Amino acid sequence: MRARAVFAVLAAGAFGAAPGSAAAARFSTVEFSPSGAITVAWHGDRAAGCEGAGMCGYSGSISYGRIVQADLELMRTRRGRLDVSGNVYSDGPAVVRARREVPGAAPAVCVATGDAPFFNLDVSPAYRGRKWFSLGAGSFPPPIASGQCAGPRLADFQRSMPAAAARLGRLKRRGSRLSLAGRFPFRAGALSGTVISTVVLRSQGVRKESDRGGGGGPGGGSKTVEVDLRFRVRRGAGEVAADFRAVEAPVCQVLDACGATGREAYAIAGAGGVIDVSGFAAARGRRIPSLRAAIAAVARGGDVEGEGQIGPSSGITSILFQRPGSASCTDRFRPPAPLLFMEGFGKRFTFDLTTPDSDVLTDSLSDVFRGRCPGPSQADILGGAALASVRLETASLAHRKLRAVLSGSGRFSSGAYAGDRSGRVVLDLVRTRARVRVVKG
Q1: Structural domain that includes position 110
Q2: Which residue, 387, 370, 382, is CA-closest to 414?
Q3: φ and ψ at 4, to 5 degrees?
């Protein structure tokens, strides 16, 4: 749940009512009458090395259903800046089918379903006054990719989602048309595939604009000590892993998992990344305290908050999936770097290694466990928990160097798989910034 708190803080920063800005913002909506659907088709590709990965006998599809709603939200500030974003909604459910055909065995099918998905309608500059309008899979919660079946990760075809260039002014006119139809190929590890779209959006014009006022300025006469710290991740090492096995029939039959065992492991080896840490406590007197005195005040009854991320090249995931009588399926990829998150009150705080959407119920772009082989996802394994965690003394933030040994363990059972997870990650941090101030309000 801490990861969702990070998401909420970021969202508040992006859309919240900052003094002097939200009061000047004007909002409008372009609504569309949509048609069409999105399907992802894929197969093991010999040219991409499917034989060595044990995936040549696999193929499948992901059907996202008929698109039933779409809109664009426009926000223009008094200074003239225009922010545009939108969403496209399906009637669902999304259906995943993965077919396995190998010599000496009868064909088998894995079927999984997900809730009716929605996609971002992302907008970015194109050329000659036009903008790119593209469907994105960064929505929250994200759409299902392969569930527990074999198939591509959500990140594998994110950049191959349909896109088209158009003038925003034209789309505001009722009856104008934006076609996102086409075939968009992708290659991912030992798999190749195509995103197939028949989606067309027809504008219904602009809904009446409205001004939205912002809140008042800060109030109150109390004073607060604020501590502002930055730590660099000088060194990181460790692993978070899950060993799993298939559960008994009939669940394992539906997901083509009976008799399977495997391991999914995310290993950190390297350095890089930063975390910004803030501490807040009631001030005593008018003078600005020393760093050590300010942190001591936080430890007596203040709050600690921290957000950051390890380096983008610090970790790699390895997958092994074994099935009786079949070649082992293997995969290796570098997922998005996990987040670093601190939260606490008084003498101690929690330090988590986590991901932005660790508590979603299906696939996500930040999943560090889910590969292209069959198996459980991060949501199945962690159930919303952090990858690894530790409780630290607030007073330790006064040290220039800080070593954190994060860990986590437990059992899990979800869908066709059950197993054990374990993890131990050592992070060596060095402080690169320290500021203390006293503020009113």
Answers
A1: 25-206
A2: 382
A3: -65, -35
Ranges of beta strands (E only) in 77-138 are: 82-90, 94-100, 108-114, 118-125, 131-136
Please answer whether residues 166 and 192 qualify as being in contact, where contact means their C-beta atoms are separated by less than 8 angstroms: no
- Tell me how far CA of residue 439 lies from CA of 18, 225, 300, 344, 369, in angstroms: 18, 7, 19, 21, 43
Are both 166 and 290 inside the same structural domain?
no
pTM listed for this prediction: 0.86
- Percentage of the chain exceeding pLDDT 70: 90
Helices (H), 54-197: 154-157, 168-171
Do residue 264 and residue 309 come from a single domain? yes
Residues 280 and 186 grouped into a single domain? no
DSSP string, 299-348: HHH-EEEEEEEE-TTSEEEEEEEE-TTSPPEEEEE-PPPPEEEEEEETTE
Q: What is the pLDDT of residue 76?
A: 85
> How far is C-alpha 325 from the chain's CA centre?
36
Could you give the angle at the alpha carbon of 151 between the alpha carbons of 339 and 263, nearest 5°? 60
Whole-number Å distance between alpha carbons of 321 and 100: 14
**pLDDT band (50, 70, 90) for residue 67:** very high
Asked whether residue 260 carries a pLDDT value surpassing 50, the answer given is: yes
Q: Is the same domain home to 394 and 426?
A: yes
Q: What is the mean pLDDT of the chain?
A: 89
- How many distinct structural domains can be found in the chain? 2
For residue 19, being part of any structural domain is answered with no
